[in-house]
Amino acid sequence: MSSARKKRPPAVRSDGARNRELLLAAAEQEFGEQGIAASVADITRRAGLAKGTFFRHFATKDDLITAIVEPHIEVLDSAARAQLDAVEPGAALLEFLTVAAGQRQQRDVSFLLRAGSAPARVTMLRDRLFDTIAQLVDRALASGALRNDITATDVILLMCAPIHVVEYLPNAQPDLWRRYLGIIFDGLRPEGAHPLPYPAPTPP
Amino acid sequence: MSSARKKRPPAVRSDGARNRELLLAAAEQEFGEQGIAASVADITRRAGLAKGTFFRHFATKDDLITAIVEPHIEVLDSAARAQLDAVEPGAALLEFLTVAAGQRQQRDVSFLLRAGSAPARVTMLRDRLFDTIAQLVDRALASGALRNDITATDVILLMCAPIHVVEYLPNAQPDLWRRYLGIIFDGLRPEGAHPLPYPAPTPP
Amino acid sequence: MSSARKKRPPAVRSDGARNRELLLAAAEQEFGEQGIAASVADITRRAGLAKGTFFRHFATKDDLITAIVEPHIEVLDSAARAQLDAVEPGAALLEFLTVAAGQRQQRDVSFLLRAGSAPARVTMLRDRLFDTIAQLVDRALASGALRNDITATDVILLMCAPIHVVEYLPNAQPDLWRRYLGIIFDGLRPEGAHPLPYPAPTPP
Amino acid sequence: MSSARKKRPPAVRSDGARNRELLLAAAEQEFGEQGIAASVADITRRAGLAKGTFFRHFATKDDLITAIVEPHIEVLDSAARAQLDAVEPGAALLEFLTVAAGQRQQRDVSFLLRAGSAPARVTMLRDRLFDTIAQLVDRALASGALRNDITATDVILLMCAPIHVVEYLPNAQPDLWRRYLGIIFDGLRPEGAHPLPYPAPTPP
DNA sequence: AATGAATGAGGCTTCATTCAT
DNA sequence: CATGAATGAAGCCTCATTCAT
Q1: pTM of the full structure
Q2: Which pLDDT belongs to residue D108?
Q3: Environment class of residue C48 by beta-carbon count within 10 Å: exposed (0-12), middle (13-18) or buried (19+)?
Q4: What's the mean pLDDT in A8-12?
Q5: CA C183 and chain centroid, separation
Q6: If we measure between CA atoms, which residue out of A59, A88, A82, A179 comes closest to residue A133?
Q7: How many domains in chain B?
Q8: What is the CATH number of the domain that holds C66?
Q9: Domain identity same for A185 and A172
Q10: Helix axes D177-188 and D89-102, enclosed angle (nearest 10)
Q11: Which of C115-119, D148-152, D186-190 is predicted with the least confidence, judged by mean pLDDT?
Q12: Rounded to whole angstroms, what are the CA distances from D119 to B29, B172, C166, D63, D66?
């Protein structure tokens, strides 16, 4: 016991990878609270790092946004794929939409849906996600779980609505979006569907 | 004597009221394109005026927003009241929501739903509108045109969704929102309604 | 009585001269309250006139200041001359200083004492005033009413001090300056004078 | 992605503390020349720094003023305290006034005497200084070195006068204020004092 | 690799001044 | 002659980004 030499510090991962995570986490929180207007200073302060460190990890604030959004899209895509061979395609679609909204970072995803100038990688991931969703929708349509005047684009467009709707309420309960997803999904069901006054758009 | 300034180039005189309209129009467009972050400089440039002129018409950027939003709320309230004694309360509510979305300035209205710090007058107008909508909803509920687990707050929150949904699509047809209003309204109907997984929120 | 024709209006001096006076009066008040930072808009508002009218009467804000200051200097000069042949030169000087401070627009006069770039006319008037004061001082010196190490320049420099001193006090009584003129003038008297640690400056 | 900005030219790194001093020095000079109206741009230009750097050191222009004024008040207070137990209270007061004026930053102190809205700390320091001066005055009064109709408030008000008086002279010798302090202090002595025409004000 | 000081463009707002009506 | 709308320079301040240490 006496001759033990513990010189090396306990390996506190203060390395680059850790700081990157700190920054991403801080950024998601700040963006969540203040919207995209959150400043780099806010983010680094929350992360407990210096501004210079921020730019070592992300060349640009926009790059950070991309870095936040990319994994979200990938997670959504996995969630969608996980439902592709479910036995009840209607329930599978609803489950996917629930998981998706539950990420509560759809907010960030919607940045992208608009973004005219998204980086190539993001565009590609997004297109892949949309394709997966389209498969989910097709299966639900085929099974009769969805009204037949609905398209995948409709579902994609409506996907973020529950989250956005809830954002109008200053102090909403965190799970309130479930209510509006329920209502909107009921609107997608075949029972009691009224003819729609306008044709479906072409996909983005 | 100290405050002498350099000579200034001419100034063109035009109709004050007209410039105010120019500014309001330019502002609605810029806000539509860039969100509330659109700068006063952008707005005046689009209006073809000098920055100083902006502040002659609106003491503050916030004042401009108020000036844009107030009449929209008033128009919405009128549209709602016009449906208060319709014979078919369900159709009346749908008609109101259609007129409201048709204004396509709901986007601006939604600024307000969030705005914790709206000017007193705006808050008052908004509360009046919400009250009118509540009456519309009550009548629709009483007539059985709405599923009975829906509240006025639900309708208010969902009111702007069709417009927002469509905004994700870069080059959407101008009337595409009608489609999504149709879908969402179908979700509010009693036929085929599934129990909602979360209770209604309390009004703002 | 029946054939009288009173067509002409009752000659309400709404002519240029009257507006000029309105502007000068408003300016003195605003400058008094807000200092030289008072804006042209403030002044014209107080005068009940339009900004354009201001610039019809004064090409420049600086011109207005000159227009305010000139008559003050002239009045001071008259006041000084009125004391030139008084029988008691010491009392005469004190009387002049009292009248001068009493104008309470010394504040404005002091603008000038600094002003490197005063218009020619103002410089001339000022020099004339200084010359008159010098005569007053010479007579007081000759009569033994002033300590003999004092010069006219000293008196000129000290002339505005009582007003300035009082300006530090936010809610000073309007006549408080009399107290400090008394103290300072006592410092100029021969009785109890201590040798001064620094020689008199040369006149501006 | 929207917030991309153009590339910025290099940035020179230097000692933070040093730049703060540069800014303080530049500010004192600019304020001395142009009064409190000196702009942040003027100050940073004089300091050879960028505008942004200013706000890194002082959150606000007002903060800069506070930063300038605070140490001056503290130095004055020390100077006053150093005289509290002098054997000749009259000479002690004169010595304090001399040291105070010698700082030649009284000018800045006078900002404060007016400032209705000074930060709490400044108000506190100022009150402490005034209290110390009051002790000095009381002792001088008790020793018979001051005329007995004088109060501490009088001395405080007159304290800055020598500096201000000299400011009227464009190219005054730097020590000319000593002359006017001499004159004014003679006015405070008991010998040859004439009754004052106005009562002492209450302290601020 | 991390830090944080420095940078300067750009945002909102004020104000002297010009000029069409 | 008066009016008041328009102008744009300038003021204060914020923030993404760069770079010496």
Answers
A1: 0.85
A2: 57
A3: exposed
A4: 51
A5: 21
A6: A82
A7: 2
A8: 1.10.357.10
A9: yes
A10: 150
A11: C115-119
A12: 43, 55, 23, 9, 8
What are the tokens at B44? 């005046």
Indicate whether C75 and C147 sit together in one domain: yes
Q: Which helix (H) or strand (E) holds B64?
A: helix B61-81
Contact B3 C115 (CB under 8 A): no
Residue B175's contacts (CB-CB under 8 Å, 6 or more residues apart) are: A198
Nearest-angstrom CA–CA distance, A14 and A63: 22
Q: How many residues does chain A have?
A: 204
* CA of A83 vs chain B CAs: smallest distance (Å): 21
User: How does DSSP assign A98-157, residue by residue?
Assistant: HHHHHTS-HHHHHHHHH-TT--HHHHHHHHHHHHHHHHHHHHHHHTT-S-TT--HHHHHH
Alpha carbon of A26: minimum distance to chain B alpha carbons (Å): 23
User: Does residue B96 sit within a domain?
Assistant: yes
Least confident of A154-158, B15-19, B182-186, B194-198: B15-19
The CATH number covering residue B52 comes to 1.10.10.60
Q: Which residue of A has its CA nearest to B172?
A: A201
Residue B7's nearest nucleotide, by CA–C1', is E17
For residue A114, give the chain B residue with the closest CA: B168
Ordered DSSP codes for C120-186 = HHHHHHHHHHHHHHHHHHHHHHHTT-S-TT--HHHHHHHHTHHHHHHHTSTT--TTTHHHHHHHHHH
Nearest to B3 among C61, C66, C119 (CB): C61
Chain D residues 9 to 38 with C-beta below 7 Å from nucleic strand E: 9, 11-16, 18-19
Output the CA–CA distances (angstroms, integers) from residue C192 to A63, C68, C156, D87, D117, in the order listed. 80, 40, 22, 22, 41
Angle at B56 between CA B35 and CA B73, to 5 degrees: 45
* Residue C4 domain flag: no
The verdict on D52 and D77 lying in the same domain is no
